[in-house]
Amino acid sequence: MLKVVKFGGSSLASSEQFARVKAIVESDPDRKVVVVSAPGKRFKDDTKVTDLLYICHAHIKYHASFHDVFEQIADRYREICQGCGLTQDLEKELAFVEESMNAASSVDEIVSRGEYLNAKLMAEYLGYTFIDSKDWLRFNYDGRVDFEGSYEALQGLFAHAKQVVLPGFYGSFPDGEIKTFSRGGSDVTGAIAAAALDADAYENWTDVSGILMADPRIVDNPRPIEQVTFGELRELSYMGADVLHEETVFPVRSKNIPLYIKNTNDPAARGTLILEEFERETEDEKRRFVTGITGRKHYSIITVSKARMNEEPGFIRNTLKIVEKYGITVEHIPSSIDSFSFVVSTQKIEPCLHDMINEMNDVLHPDRIKVDHGISLIAIVGRRMAWNVGVSGKLFATLGENNINIRMIEQGADEINIIIGVADKDFKKTIRVLYDSFT
Ligand code: ASP
Fold it and tell me: Scanning 3, 161, 228, 279, which has its CA 20 to 30 A from the CA of 424?
């Protein structure tokens, strides 16, 4: 058996956290591939090493000394090194990294050093082999991952090492230059490593006991989700649940590798298992239809009305062609006979709204175009909602009882989600009352 385990920044923020990680890795001999982030926050107002590295880059760009900021970074690693009793020559490594950071360094190269140094320390601590991700994780010049090339390279290196630590977040272009993923990208490194080595599991260790049914900033102590399908996860993440980097899913999903979210600070907690589908429902799941509730604020509903619109072929298409011309993506299209609406992000539509409406008036000659800002979209997601009578009844009853007006409703044909639009002022209240009613 082979498990790829990735630890996030807060799991690696100090020597104390390093000790927890070591205990977790050593408790299961299958945990042979360890992917690390850079040291994250130790407490609420702390600064992540990656953020400090971005600050170093800004100093270099404006020709200011970055030494003081680099010292803050160095102290983070010194504490880990001393606290874990490591013997490698950290000062030499730090000096080398600091010297290599200059006006010719790319921002990706600079910010990747957080993971690089952490992986060096973790490798010694575990007695595993350090493999630099620039030597296996390959990017094409268009910025996309070369999956086959990366898989082959890691397989070759792993065959000689057997127990390895890999820095997350970066790889390299064909000419060897460092390239990072977007923020949070160590999740993706772990997923690619798991797919490359056909792992039996990919465990993503973080500081929460799995994916939660709702945002803990809105609902007190939301329940963790025990099992979620990749499809549900996609819906939840798209609609605002902050779970994994969005590119994480593809490599593991394509190879059907189970993905676990676990808590470094509470390893015994069950966490969340993510799979393509589940054969059996847990006892807990049998009692509930809903997997998670999430949402996003600040949408606009634009309603185009024209009498007998239904008899005018191409009316909706011509309207949407104009929206497309302005590079705006449409989230939902609720419609009736003489009008139809489309829901878009307010932030995206604002700069071009007036031009777009003028063009619609000129081309389509509608009776009216109405714009409503301040809309929140709330998604109720659950694979068990499909074909189950009563879910939407309960939903509407709950919102009605709580005096929440529904501005829009939509249900996908696979019945995995129901999306409702409410006023921004009702955003939190809606999530709270739905959570209470469906748990
Ligand atoms: N350290 C990087 C960040 O803070 C990458 C990661 O942790 O996944 O975004």
Answer: 228
316 and 202 assigned to the same domain: no
Q: Is 183 in the pocket of ligand 1 (CB under 6 A)?
A: yes
pLDDT, tens only, 69-114: 999 999 999 999 999 999 999 999 999 999 999 888 999 999 999 9
For residue range 206-231, list pLDDT tens digits in order. 998 899 999 999 999 999 999 999 98
Instruction: Tell me if 180 CB under 6 Å of ligand 1.
Output: no
**Domain range enclosing 68:** 3-207
If one counts the domains in the chain, the total is 2
Residues 208 and 13: their CA atoms lie apart, in Å, by 15
Please give the number of the atom of ligand 1 that sits closest to the Cα of 169.
Answer: 5
List pLDDT tens digits, range 382-412: 988 877 778 888 899 999 999 999 999 988 7
Indicate if ligand 1 lies below 6 Å from the C-beta of 184: yes
Tell me, using a 6 A CB cutoff, whether residue 48 lines ligand 1. yes
Is residue 117 in a domain? yes
Pocket test for ligand 1, best of 7, 169, 248 (most atoms within 8 A of CB): 169
Span 239-286, pLDDT tens digits: 777 889 989 999 999 999 999 999 999 999 999 999 998 887 777 777
First-to-last C-alpha distance (Å) of the chain: 36
Q: In terms of domains, do 314 and 424 share one? A: yes
Percentage helix, strand, coil for the chain under 3-state DSSP, each rounded to 5 = 45, 20, 35
Cβ–Cβ under 8 Å, residues 379 and 345: no
114 lines ligand 1 (CB under 6 A): yes
